[in-house]
Each structure stands twice: as C-alpha cells, then as structure tokens.
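Running low. Got one?
___
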Amino acid sequence: MSIPVTAYYRNANYALHAKRRFGGVETTTYMLLAVLTTNYPNEATIKQLFYLDFVKAFIVENIGGVEVVGYMCGVIPNGENSKMRRADRIFGPREKTEIGGLDKWCDLLSDGGFNTFGKSSPCVITSAKIGEIQIAEVSFKSAFYLSSSNFGIEYYQGGSWQNLGGGTSLAANAITYFGITKESIAGLKAGDTLTVRSFIENAEGKYTSLAINATIGVAGPLSLKFNATYASYASSGSVYENVYPDFLPLGDGVRFYSNLSMDTTPKSLDGYYIHSGKWYRLQPESGTDLMIITAHGDAVAGSWPSGDPGNTYPDPTLWIGYIFDFAYEYDAYINTCMVNHSGAGRVYNNPINGKVYRNWNNITNAFTTLFTGFIMRNDDCVVLQYNSGDFIGVLNP
C-alpha cells in the first residue's frame, strides 16, 4: 500500500521548499504538508502512528466553505523517533517546539512523516541451554502505509547477523507475533554468548531492536551405556551417568562436562557409548580434561565401527507361532490346532549356530536367552520341541 495523495495538503500538489548552499553548490529540498484523516483525526494520534515528536498547523485556508489545515511534522534530531525513518527524509530547516516543558528543536520531514520503518519489540530469551533455546514471542508491527517484506529474529555469529526465522510478508498497518524454540543454533556451543535481536523490513529500510545477550548452558544430564572395547557391546554395558554435552544433536566434536556449571569434567572412560539408537566414540581431548566425541554412527549391523563383531551378526530368522513351555499345554491345545486361540509368540533362529532363542536385541544383534519349550507353527499346526535352543523333535502323533 502506498501513501495516498489525499494524506497531503492539496493532494500533494503543494510543497514548501528550502534552498541551501554547501561548498558553492545550491540544493533545494521540498516539504509536503500532512492533513488529518478519519484514521488520525488529531495531532496526538498522528504522532503515535507515525513516530513523530512535532506536529504543527501551518496553513489554514477556506476552499468552498471547508477549512483545510496543513501540518508540518518533525522529529527530535537523533531521538528515538528519528530512527524510525531514512535520514534523507529530513527537510532541512528546524522548528522549535515545547516538549515536556522544555524547548526542543525538531527536524522537519519532507514527506509529512508518513514513510516509516516497521517496528518490533526487543527479544526476551526465556531459556538458553543446549537442547532448549527459547525466545519469547516478539511483536512485529508494519508501518501504517507500508507493508513489510521480511521480519524475524536474528543472531550474531561469525562476524555477521544470521536469520533464525520469521516471516516474509506483513500487510500495512498489521501486527503479528513470532518466537523461537530450538534444540541448538549452528555455530554456538555451551559457554558461547547468544546475541539476538528482532528486525522488520519494508521499502523504507530495516528496523532492528536492541540486541540482548545470554550465555548458553550445557544440555543434560544424559545417561550413556559404555563398553571399552566394542560399540555393539555398549547397549548391555555399564551406565555412564550425569554427563552434560555442549551441543545437540550429539556428533563429532561435542564435549562433555559433569555439571551444569561446566567447571568440572566427567570421569575419563575412553571407549564406546550408546544413546538413542546411535553409537559414539569418546576419547580424552588433547590439551583438556574433557571427553570429546571423535566418531559416531547408527547402532545397527553394518554401521558399527570397523572390526566390531556386531557387523558380522546375521539377521535372525523370526518364527511366529504359538509357544508353550509345558507338555500338558500341548496336550490341551493340540486337538484344536490353536485355531480358537490368539496371542502369537516369537522365537529367533541364529543361522550361525542353528540354535533357537527366546530373545534378540535388534540394537546389538545379540541373542540373549536360549529357548526351551514347544512351538506350534501357524501354517500347518506342527508342534516342535526345543531344549536349550536345540531341536528335539516333532510332537505330533
């Protein structure tokens, strides 16, 4: 939305002009006069909507019995309202006015003061730790006559401001809200300073709020399972408790502390760790007492570290049938062939040793409990007997 000509005295067909000479060069600037409308019917409202310090009636004339008033508008030099517009909107001459009981000089504005930036509220960081970085909702208000093309929250990193998120359009004279919730921010780890600000852009330029800072804390605590030799053994290993990583998601280069204050280091357990379906190689960091991740991968066969026995385990054959442990259960159920019963059980065949197991860990490919009992296969009602994982025979008469 552009500024309508009806916002100006004589539909913008009248302007004051001022001539100035600098270094022998004469320049002329022009100032349009504002008029009040139903949207801003008084001086107080026009000041509020367009971030003005000074509004003064300049011309009064009578056109066809209707009194028309033109207004000069201005801002205090280097004041807060002067920052809401481009510097080249300054007309040149200044006008004195009383503000707060004191005489103040104000810069008059060439466009009637109507071209302004949008405005956004300062950021409030409600949480600043790895795993939970939160910035409360910020309000974004577009200029009265100008739509906004971009708005959001940005952070300072690597010598420049980076966009954390926001929106790409906001209609003129509209307001919206946006906040941030992130696990982590690229390039920032625990102990680093998070510096953020809000911004909003339109054809007039970019407005930015004051920047605020917070120190990022560690995540956690986490509990990891540990094995010194093989990653695939770690899922059933000892528990490494209360460690605090300096970044999430976990990956190479992430360091661990033993408390939220980051002033002590965890016990050095050089080896392999399992957490949330991933394996991690942790080693003491050179030059520090910290443990650091040097390698990681998925905790599945084929993705364990080179030489890990977990990569040689075959996928087990899964048998689904009706499992019972005692002969009298077989005697009771065999005549009905289990057709009236539900609740399929599972056993797992290890192709390497030919034994059948009651349990299989899909993380480590470990077969954990040898099966003793009876299996009735679904497809043909044949009952098979096993003892300590070994096939004994068929029980069907």
Observations:
- The radius of gyration is 37 Å.
